[in-house]
Please model this.
Amino acid sequence: MADSLGTLKTAYDLAKDLVNLADATARQGKVAELQRQILDAQGDAIAANQERLALMETIGKLEKDVARLEAWEAEKRRYGLQELPPGVFVRVLQPAMANGEPIHRLCAKCYEDGKKSILQSAGIIRGQETLNCHGCGARMVVGNYQAPPPANARPWRG
Model:
């Protein structure tokens, strides 16, 4: 930007000099130099505009990233860490945060990577459930299967 202003100042000074020149040859040289200075100023203005557009694009991408991260942070608060035997950790939707969704589990690795990947049950054999993550390909075998309580269930007090 400072280069543009310097170029325009030089062009202005050349234009002032042109007014006072009586010699046609000298005038023609000054006109050519003035045109060069104007072209340089235009080039500087175009470069500054391209830089401005690139900065605006970068700002737009950063704003989208910030919005995505803020949305993920809000989503993360809905899940609590749960340990399933034998020492397998998953994230589970907290019943108070379900908002009508069924209680489900997320892969802890995908969760830490900023992704929501619901664990899918591959079945229960002899009390052990196999959970598959289609996000990262993890396969977890957990024991002593107990179905998660419905969102509106209350603990039994006998």
